[in-house]
Write a structure and sequence with these properties.
Number of strands: 24
Structural class: alpha/beta
Helix content: 25-40%
Strand content: 15-25%
Amino acid sequence: MKKRWLTLFSVLGTVISLHCRGQAPSVNNIVPKPVSYIATDERPVTLSRHTVILADDQYKAQAEYLQGLLLDQCDLALAIATPDTKLGRHSRIMLVHDTIEANRPEMYWLESGGPVVRIKARDVAGMVHGIQTFLQLLPLGKVKEVKFPTVEIKDYPRFAYRGMHLDVSRHIFPVDFLKKYIDYLAFHKFNNFHWHLTDDQGWRLEIKSYPKLTQVGAWRNSTLIGHFKDTPARYDSTRYGGFYTQDQVREIVQYAAVRGINVIPEIDIPGHSRAIIASYPEFSTKPDSAWQVANTWGMYNRQNNVLAPNPGTFKFLETVFHEVADLFPSEYIHLGGDECSKMWWKADLKTQAFMKVNNLKDEKELQTYFIKQVSGYLAQKNKKVIGWHEILEGNLDTTAVVMNWGGAKQGIEAAQRRHPVIMSPGNPLYFDNYQSKDPKDSLAIHGYNPLDAVYNFNPVPAELQQLKLDRYILGAQANVWTEYMGYPSKVEYMVFPRMTALSEVLWTDPRQKDFADFKRRLKTAILPRYAFWGSAYFKDFERWTIADK
């Protein structure tokens, strides 16, 4: 057998033909770029309705997943082999548990030749990544058979944490769309779905111990119309809301697990708690039955949205976070900790007395007290915490992961204090920001994050590399705040193609990245896939660049 090793630096000359309506998917169109591949001159593998899927016990669920994907993408209805299946001479797709060749977390080997396509991985995530690469080498559309090329692809991610966030508090989305969103993440080889479940504008998670959270806190009496900076402010008069039942949560978590996606819930405290206060005013520094769920956007500094440090509040937090921990298998639970206005604590005599009794010198220490309390509650359930970078205002245990939505400065500080860090800076990873400066572009909150800014982002600040502290950067995440995303297609419009760019940032060695080549692959292979999915996306991305800033 004659082989020639190629890296992605020399991949552009290799084209692998598949037969379906003239389309020719090829290795040099894969997104994100894999580490390396081998092209061989062996005869291709013929995939047809007679092809059988074989899976080791660890990957039975992924075999069913692949079966469904092949039916959807190519209309190939393949059987999954059982112990008594007679294979004959027909081709087969093998999902193999392997810890020798696939010796890294999330790594996969994709090999093909003769009658076999073989995907090897040591874990579920790696197997799913291999499946997604396999699918990128198949045509989009109905086929009778496919001549699959003979290749070996060796691939693994640059960063351990590769996340996408979705805010369902400002606007809630159906379970079916959440599953579709998770499918988007799986295709792009992300491994974490950060589910922002609570905020001032709505509480979206059923908590059986505190039913008013969904009876009251899940509903607002109106919603802002237009931009929050518009004057005068205008509101509709429509009651808006909803929530996810615990059964729906379990369904989504299981759906994500099959696809190698970890679901991290966020319960935002001690600020951004207006929905809690509307439901249970006794947890406020100013108990008042008139408090309502917020109907506009912003930090609400001038209207109370912070929790009071009283026994009822801490019992509430312990109970709620225990219930959340029991619902989500994730090692980490996100507790927010951001944008907590201190003015209400300063003005409240009971809060000041609490601080004096507990030797807290200022309100920043009180915020840290809340974070430490919840960290302790979660530790009882063998969970760890993630918080926004404001949790750095106090002295926390370094097991807490800092999710930095600020600039490089906050990420550097967190790493210097030996915290694991997830970089999620507003510039350029807030996908609720504008993608262009065209005044006719769809309404967004503010800012400007064009496609090339996302693609050129490096999660590791140069200073941390110089200090040899880059090991504390776990990876990065894009955030999707939904003030101006009231329906699924708007979410898609805002994340695509920026999500695709971020996938390569987090997966691929930066020495192999090239923006011009990325745009070529995007146009050749990924835009047709958006269309195949029936997904909205921002089509005018080539007009707008970071140079416009």
